[in-house]
Amino acid sequence: MLTCRLECGVKMAVKEKYDLKKPGTRKLVEKIHHGVYVKEGLAIAFPLCFPGATIQIPHDESFITALSVGPRGMIYGGTSGAAAHIFVAMFKGVTGCVLDLGTPEKMNEVTSVWCGGEEWFAACNGKSGGAVFKGKCQPMPFDLIQEWSFTILPIEKVYEFTDEKIINVVPRGKKGIFIITDKRFMCITNGKEKVYKTDMLAERISPAADGEFLAGIKSEKSVWIFDIRTEKFSEIKLSGRSDRIKRNIVWTYAEHAKKLYFGDSSGNVFFVARNKVSRIGKTPLRSITTLTTIPDGRIYGTCGDTMEHIFCWNPVGGKIKDVGIAVSVIERRRYGYMFGAAVSNSDGIIFFGEKDNLGHLWLYFPPILGNK
């Protein structure tokens, strides 16, 4: 608690110690302490291994920086650090494990992971540049409680860049991929590049909104829209005169509602349409690090610096709520301070990738809304 006193004619703020013997003080301290951590829903930290059977991905190689939902509801992801890893997480049926699929050669960062058919793909960076890798998706195990076995298949390099870092990749249906690097924006189809000349910031590009358009950041006051069919660009300016877009963009696309959103390093959350960009809210802490949506339209993400908070934006009312710091008290007793990726499945379960030493995959079960 802060109080003020007069000293040499200047007001100074000083901390006043709580009297723990005073009635009500202990209750207040507990309210403040427990109010810092997750206040609704349930968070569970899961190690990057098959508990009791395999060892975890090394602590300095386990910064989770990419996540994606794959076939059979499995979660595919990538880590960064001293070396990059690709993994698959299984929680449906008689499963419950994270399987390390291997390390792309000479790579130390994974920026994007996605699945096409029965193959996974990953965009990675190393000291000499970026590359795209692929591998076979894992089949559904029969029973991971009694008898089990896995076949780890080779990782194949399918495309390589020299002296270019991949910022992120967006699949173009079954026909190809869109890639933005620190130097250019292009589409690759059957190994052939098509580079698009446009004035844009080297920031992450959005998922393909309904398969019709992509979006990216043109300036602090505007967004570019790329029509996938016509391959033409247009510029959309922010609707709020005082609004500004800051760097380090993260995107999410709500497939059920066909709505596109992004967050920036100032904590602003924006809604993007073909002809409109508007700010819908501001997070309690600066720097939005992850963003995802669940089927009922709510947006969840993480924000902050070194001690991040989970937040929620509800379309009903349009307000952002501070959910609190992630903490797991089931099996793995752990705090979650920093996150690098988020994705949700059709059940409304959110998976947060911890971007920290000995990173865990966090399962967050949001509260159920009443039928109002």
Task: Tell me what the structure shows.
The structure is a single chain. This protein has 372 residues and is mainly beta. The chain contains one helix and 31 strands. The strands form nine sheets. Strands 3-31-30-29 form a four-stranded antiparallel sheet, with no helix packed on it. A four-stranded antiparallel sheet has the order 4-5-6-7, with no helix packed on it. The longest helix is centred in the first third of the chain and has 12 residues. The protein is globular, with a radius of gyration of 22 Å. The N terminus is likely disordered.
What structural category do the secondary elements indicate? mainly beta
Beginning-to-end CA distance, first to last residue: 38 Å
How much strand?
Answer: over 45%
Helix content: under 10%
Overall pLDDT score: 91
Outline type: globular
- Major sheet, described briefly? 4 strands, antiparallel
Count of DSSP E strands?
31
Radius of gyration from CA coordinates: 22 Å
Please state how the strands of the largest beta sheet are arranged side by side: 3-31-30-29
Poorly predicted regions are: 1-13
What is the helix tally?
1
Question: What is the secondary structure topology, with strand pairs?
Answer:
Blueprint: E1 2-7, E2 10-15, H1 25-36, E3 42-46, E4 63-69, E5 75-80, E6 85-90, E7 97-102, E8 109-116, E9 119-126, E10 129-136, E11 156-160, E12 166-172, E13 176-181, E14 185-189, E15 192-196, E16 213-219, E17 222-227, E18 232-237, E19 250-254, E20 259-263, E21 268-273, E22 276-282, E23 288-293, E24 299-303, E25 309-314, E26 319-324, E27 326-328, E28 334-336, E29 339-344, E30 350-354, E31 361-365
Antiparallel strand pairs: 1-2, 3-31, 4-5, 5-6, 6-7, 8-9, 9-10, 10-11, 12-13, 13-14, 14-15, 16-17, 17-18, 19-20, 20-21, 21-22, 23-24, 24-25, 25-26, 27-28, 29-30, 30-31
